[in-house]
Design goal:
CATH topology of the largest domain: Rossmann fold
Largest sheet: 7 strands, parallel
CATH superfamily of the largest domain: NAD(P)-binding Rossmann-like Domain
Strand content: 15-25%
Strand order of the largest sheet: 8-7-6-9-10-11-12
Number of strands: 12
CATH architecture of the largest domain: 3-Layer(aba) Sandwich
Mean pLDDT: 95
Structural class: alpha/beta
Order of helices and strands: EHEHEEHEHHEHEEHEHEHEEH
Shape: elongated
Number of helices: 10
CATH class of the largest domain: Alpha Beta
Radius of gyration: 21 Å
């Protein structure tokens, strides 16, 4: 029996999101299944049962009348959910060890960077100035992780093992060994007050849009060794109020930020984020999706589904993740 066709709807712009690269990988892991680009799939729309997507243009998925499941190839699903014509079929998010490990690397790298005063030391190097400052222990720093899904929970546990005092906040209760748990709006302020370095890994929803704002920054701890709180955002660009971030860096409400995501990407050349002395900037590469790992993940999910099994990591469209 002919297996259902898999359509690839990938809108990238970087080497990692080259549609040709992804099609080559899916052809390898789905050798007995047709794998078609969007242009090819349009002429065989009725045969398309599955779609693997990254930032598909609105309306493109609606042309497939027999679609059974959609697989998002990256961590964030907000771009897919924004499509008002999205077919009413399961939307599956990525949850693989490779992606989780890469995000944990990024979070740990940037927490350590600020904890060990790397921006100051690199500036001293450029100025040929030998002027070390006193260095505190990891146990003196309280890290707060916003978002305790797969990515946030793993990063929090690794930071805990490094000796940091780690707390996590999520919309609903999560019990993770070694992590001080906070949840819901009633516990949000208490979570912020004890936090020196705030790590944001929340999904982007109507409730979390622009959550990283002056109101939040002003409630972070100001009595820790850092002198002023630090914010690390490797979630989504829509989580941050960028005008507030810049203003709070300028007036000292924030001591520094590490930002991997922005409201407009690529970041415009005239953005102050490029040159602000308190900003560590990365080009949305905190956890690049690995085509090999993800294509195998999608292929396994489809095979299990066609054998009568349940799809894993299906997005709750009401919650947005």
């Amino acid at each position: 029996m002919k297996k259902g066709t898999l359509a690839l709807l990938i809108h990238g712009g970087t080497d990692n999101w080259s549609p040709e690269r992804w099609q080559a990988r899916f052809n390898e892991v789905c050798r007995d299944r047709p794998v078609l680009s969007l242009a090819e799939a349009r002429s065989a729309a009725a045969e398309v049962h599955y779609a693997a997507v990254w930032k598909p243009a609105p309306g493109k998925l609606a042309v497939f009348p027999n679609l059974r499941a959609i697989f998002n190839l990256g961590a964030g699903v907000d771009a897919v959910l924004a499509d008002k014509t999205l077919p009413d079929v399961p939307l599956v998010r990525v949850a693989v060890g490779d992606l989780t490990g890469r995000m944990t690397e990024y979070v740990v790298l940037h927490v350590l960077m600020h904890h060990r005063q790397e921006p100051y030391l690199r500036q001293s190097q450029r100025e040929k100035r030998w002027a070390p400052k006193a260095q505190w222990a990891a146990s003196a720093i309280s890290v707060g992780v916003m978002g305790l899904g797969t990515l946030g929970a793993d990063a929090a546990q690794v930071l805990c093992r490094l000796g940091f005092k780690v707390a996590g906040w999520s919309s609903s209760r999560r019990d993770i060994a070694g992590i001080d748990g906070f949840h819901g709006p009633d516990q949000f302020d208490a979570f912020l007050r004890r936090t020196d370095i705030l790590v944001c890994l929340l999904p982007l929803t109507s409730d979390t849009r622009h959550i990283l704002s002056r109101d939040v920054f002003a409630k972070l701890n100001r009595s820790g060794p850092l002198g002023a709180p630090v914010v690390i955002n490797a979630g989504r660009g829509g989580l941050q109020n960028e005008a507030d971030i810049l203003a709070c860096l300028d007036d000292g409400t924030l001591g520094a930020v590490s930002l991997d995501v922005f409201s407009q990407e690529p970041l415009p050349a005239d953005s102050r984020f490029w040159t602000h002395p308190k900003v560590v900037l990365t080009p949305h590469n905190a956890a690049d999706t690995d085509p090999d790992e993800i294509s195998r993940y999608v292929a396994r999910q489809i095979e299990r589904f066609e054998a009568g099994g349940a799809l894993e990591n299906v997005v709750d469209r009401e919650r947005g993740y």
